[in-house]
Amino acid sequence: MNALAALVAATLNGGTLLALAALGLLINERAGVVNLGAEGMMLVAAIAGFATAVHTGSDTLAFVAGMGAGAALAGVFALLALWLNTNQYAAGLALSLFGTGFSAFVGQGYVQEKLTARPSFAIPVLSDLPFVGTALFRQHPLVYGAMALTAGLAWFLYRSRAGLVLRAVGESPESAHALGYPVRRIRLLAVLAGGALCGLAGAYVSVAYTPLWVEGMIAGKGWIALALTTFATWRPARVLLGAYLFGGVTMLQFHLQGQGVEVPSQLLSMLPYVATIVVLVLISRNSGFIRANMPASLGKPFHPGG
């Protein structure tokens, strides 16, 4: 039971970073913008957050720095894709490649750096309960923050006027523009918010999840987060559940290795990515379902007055 509780706790922890990034990308895509640069944004945010934590000793400032780095790169993407009308897919891939190289260059001096002792978190009384205390109530605050963010984003998209406008821009930017809404500014805000959340996820990786800096440490999690938005059919609650599913698959490999299961480590490391491919293949079999849930203008450029 102790091992199972630890696995559940690790699943929530591992799923949180995917959920934060995927929720940010969901905001982008609900506005009709596809940003393939999540991997690069998360890497730059990871080194920004780690460097800030090293020099200031403050995790809060580290998360703020990560969000700022992610938003800054997202702003560059917005300039290219929304104002200069470059191809969204090409601009996103370029951003991902740039972020990978830039983070490796900037992070050379931080490979051997170590953070101060990491704080432990526990909710009084509840954390002492058998099984559920270990599994649910000894998590980093951002784990609970991701859950609250999911609920807040669901309310925003489906219960608020601003969320309705955002979804309208993603469905038909021409109609929204005709009604007087500033489509490009709305998309800019969505892209910046998405970049900030990807940045928060990147900083969470290097500051709390695995508190160190290693080149390429995001290791494809940005791409998994991107796939999660399709897997979840652009619904916040499904994003969170999907993140925990993939987080559980990721943690399962370490659990099996710890239990002495004689399976090649390379095969176990493949599990999260194999699961991603399998899920996308299964979803893609029902193209009508995807089209019914996908924002109609996703990935399509908008030219005001054009």
TrEMBL record:
* UniProt key word 4Fe-4S: no
How the protein sits in the membrane? Answer: Multi-pass membrane protein
Give yes or no: UniProt keyword Plastid: no
Please classify the protein's predominant subcellular localization into one broad category.
membrane
Q: Enumerate the CDD domains for this protein.
A: TM_PBP1_transp_TpRbsC_like
Q: Which UniProt keywords apply?
A: Cell membrane, Membrane, Transmembrane, Transmembrane helix
Q: Where in the cell is it found?
A: Cell membrane
Q: What residue ranges are annotated as transmembrane?
A: 31-54, 61-83, 89-107, 142-158, 188-207, 213-232, 239-257, 263-283
The source's superkingdom equals Bacteria
- Record protein name field: ABC transporter permease
